[in-house]
TrEMBL record:
Belongs to the prokaryotic molybdopterin-containing oxidoreductase family. Pfam families: Molybdop_Fe4S4 (PF04879), Molybdopterin (PF00384), Molydop_binding (PF01568). This is Molybdopterin oxidoreductase family protein. Keywords: Iron, Iron-sulfur, Metal-binding. The lineage of its organism: Bacteria, Pseudomonadati, Pseudomonadota, Alphaproteobacteria, Rhodobacterales. InterPro entries: Asp_de-COase-like_dom_sf, MoPterin_dinucl-bd_dom, Mopterin_OxRdtase, Mopterin_OxRdtase_4Fe-4S_dom, Prok_Mopterin_Oxidored. Residues 7-64 form the 4Fe-4S Mo/W bis-MGD-type domain.
Length: 684
């Protein structure tokens, strides 16, 4: 009888689109990942990982959905009928499809359709960027789909300077968690917040839904979705009325105070109460704790950016610490972009010098329409979907599906598992999971740099993204050394090796079992307005943005509500079972997703807890399972994002209800939470 193979434990890093970027210990038996656990290599993530990574990653790597060989479509588009082919045949198909589009319409007729799959520097964007830049393919502005509005809002105040690392909460006495579902999508804040309260600090949660962390806070404000800017501007005016603003700090470190406060004074108490749906007592209680705080920190989530006034809301919320002088010391400031301290050299890694001058840039949110627009001077005739599952993540899902059904559009795909989007491809290239290749990881929500090596060989015939695009480059005759760089070379090109925290090591040589903390230039912890200077034109925190004044006509935040066509507002935050759409193929996400509804709304519609309901608007309908709860406000529905089409009887997910034509006030972003619907019992 054969002796079972020993289980060994090897270090790794979580690559998912999450601010925490956890260090991992992976248990491997032979060539199989059998368990994924936390590691102490990163002191911030400190041996703790989310349940979804622990539960679903082994099956993601080795399960029935895993893509292990190149595939060619043999049935109608979208039918998921494929047959196995060789890598040479698959690369030939991509070459032929792209070459025909280029011959007929020019290189801009080719579109790289990618977003934020793996967050490793190499897998996320390296050899692929070089390949498409050299080709002259259309460029994409990816930020408007998610993160770009929040990033733009932050940069309008602070530039590219890194914000407060979350570990500094240990020095705070007040933390505002605003539009941030901590336990689902920012897990490692939770123990820090628990310690804050244990030592007598105050935790305030501001959110349309009573999220789990709200059950453990000192104050919860359940505002109406999309009204955050009114609350933040009203607070600025109230704090001024109380003479609580830090005039000395403002004089030294703040620009644009006068136009900002002129706007803020328009948001008086009555307007805040009526618009936000909170009481005057709640508003004053929040102002009270802010005035009393010695070190206030603010943790803003991406939920805020998903409304029309989301950019203004983030700018206004992030301005509050500046108005109160809560910068310049540990535990005071805005917890955002601390990963900006990592010395990434992305222009070198991506090969930005290869970009052809004048190449058009397309907004990723517009791609469903662009793919169907034959009136364009250069129509899109070939695309490659990789690091992305757009069918599960884009607004106006049915329109995107129509776009991908075009017979005259050549679609190449590349993914780890068979997704709803891969089903539309003409040819599929199997990608390796991050457990199967080298990469280096700079987080966006914390300030540690980490490296990972393969823990298992590539499954089947799958290949790392870097190798796939090396082979494509060779097939297209791109023979410059840039397209032959090894993964070690790419890691060294991703990070500035002269940074003092690397202690003379090349990025490709940093230890696998520890994370490197990125510090301020003086070697001390990052502190805005002490050893970190706002990277703005003025060198100050800019409350008035000349850039936004020029581009959008308003240099200070303002409220611009969307007319509500139907009585219920649907918000779709992160899921406890998926990271965006990753793990949507797991059985845990099978069947109808949950829809939370307030009892008043349920009674009005005659629907019962546990019932299957149809949620609909003019764009489509989706079936969900009702959960009646007071965790939501009356008039507000909640359903987690990232489900796949098979979860609904209609073949659509909540994304089919989300409009793509409503955009955020800055950065032209998607407005996922400006979704208005009605609910009725589902047909049996």
């Amino acid at each position: 009888m054969n002796k079972p193979l020993d289980i060994r434990t090897v270090p790794s890093v979580c690559p998912l689109d999450c601010p925490d970027t956890c260090s991992l210990n992976v248990q491997v038996q032979g060539d199989t990942v059998v368990a994924v656990k936390g590691s102490t290599a990163n002191p911030y993530t400190a041996n703790v990982i989310c349940n979804k990574v622990a539960r679903y990653y082994p099956a993601f790597v080795h399960g029935t959905a895993r893509l292990t060989h190149p595939l060619k479509r043999v049935g109608p588009r979208g039918s998921s009928q494929f047959e196995r082919i060789s890598w040479d045949a698959a690369l030939d198909m991509v070459h032929a499809g792209f070459s025909k589009a280029i011959a007929d319409h020019g290189p801009e007729s080719v579109l790289p359709f990618n977003y934020a799959g793996p967050h490793g520097e190499l897998a996320g964007g390296s050899m692929d960027r070089r390949f498409f830049y050299h080709m002259g393919a259309s460029l994409i502005n990816r930020g408007p789909l998610c993160g770009g509005v929040r990033g733009g809002a932050y940069a309008s105040l602070f530039g590219a300077a890194p914000g407060m690392p979350p570990v500094q909460i240990e020095h705070s006495d007040l933390v505002l968690v605003w539009g941030n579902n901590v336990t689902v999508s920012n897990l490692h804040l939770a123990p820090l917040l628990k310690k804050l309260r244990a030592r007598g600090g105050t935790l305030v949660v501001i959110d349309p839904k009573r999220i789990k962390i709200a059950e453990q806070c000192d104050m919860f404000l359940q505002i109406k979705p999309g009204t955050d800017v009114v609350l933040a501007m009203g607070l600025a005016a109230e704090l001024e009325r109380r003479q609580a603003l830090d005039e000395a700090f403002i004089a030294e470190w703040v620009a644009g105070f006068d136009p900002y406060m002129t706007q803020a004074r328009q948001y008086g108490l009555a307007r805040v109460v009526e618009t936000c749906g909170i009481s005057a007592a709640e508003f004053h209680a929040l102002a009270d704790v802010m005035v009393a705080a010695k070190n206030m920190a603010c943790a803003f989530g991406n939920g805020i950016e998903r409304g029309r006034s989301g950019g203004s809301a983030l700018r206004a919320g992030m301005a509050l610490p500046a108005l109160l002088g809560h910068h310049g010391r540990l535990g005071a400031g805005v917890m955002a972009k601390s990963g900006g301290a990592t010395p990434k050299t992305q222009a070198r890694l991506h090969g930005d010098h290869l970009i052809k001058p004048g190449t058009r840039v397309l907004n990723i949110v517009d791609l469903a329409n662009i793919l169907q627009d034959d009136s364009l001077e250069v129509p899109i005739k070939a695309t490659m979907i990789y690091n992305h599952n757009p069918v599960a993540t884009h607004p106006d899902q049915s329109n995107l599906m129509r776009a991908l059904m075009r017979d005259d559009l050549f679609i190449a795909g590349c993914d780890v598992v068979m997704t709803d989007s891969m089903a539309y491809c003409d040819v599929i290239l199997p990608a390796a999971s991050h457990f199967e290749f080298d990469d280096i990881y700079g987080a966006y929500g914390q300030n540690y740099l980490q490296r990972a090596a393969p823990v298992i060989p590539c499954v089947g015939e799958s290949l790392p993204n870097t190798e796939i695009f090396r082979r494509l480059a060779a097939r297209f005759g791109y023979d410059d050394a840039l397209f032959q760089a090894s993964d070690s070379q790419l890691m060294d090109e991703a990070i500035d090796e002269t940074h003092p925290q690397l202690e003379g090591k090349r990025p490709s040589e940093i230890a696998l079992d520890r994370a490197i903390e990125m510090m301020a230039p003086d070697g001390e912890p990052l502190v805005m307005c002490k050893n970190v200077t706002p990277a703005t034109p003025s060198g100050k925190i800019e409350l008035f943005s000349q850039d936004y004044e020029t581009r959008y006509g308003f240099g200070v935040p303002r409220y611009d509500p969307v007319p509500q066509a139907l009585p219920l507002t649907l918000i779709t935050p992160s899921s406890a079972k998926r990271t965006n759409a990753t793990f949507g193929s797991d059985p845990a996400s099978a069947g109808p997703e949950m829809l939370e509804m307030h009892p008043k709304d349920a009674r009005k519609r005659g629907v019962q807890d546990g019932a299957l309901v149809s949620v609909w608007n003019a764009l489509g309908a989706v079936t969900l399972q009702l959960k009646v709860t007071e965790a939501t406000r009356p008039g507000v529905l909640y359903s987690p994002k990232g489900t796949w089409r098979g979860s609904s009887q209609t073949g659509f997910t909540v994304n089919t209800l989300i409009p793509a034509d409503i955009r955020t006030d800055i950065e032209d972003g998607a407005c996922y939470h400006e979704t208005f619907v009605e609910v009725k019992p589902a047909k049996a």
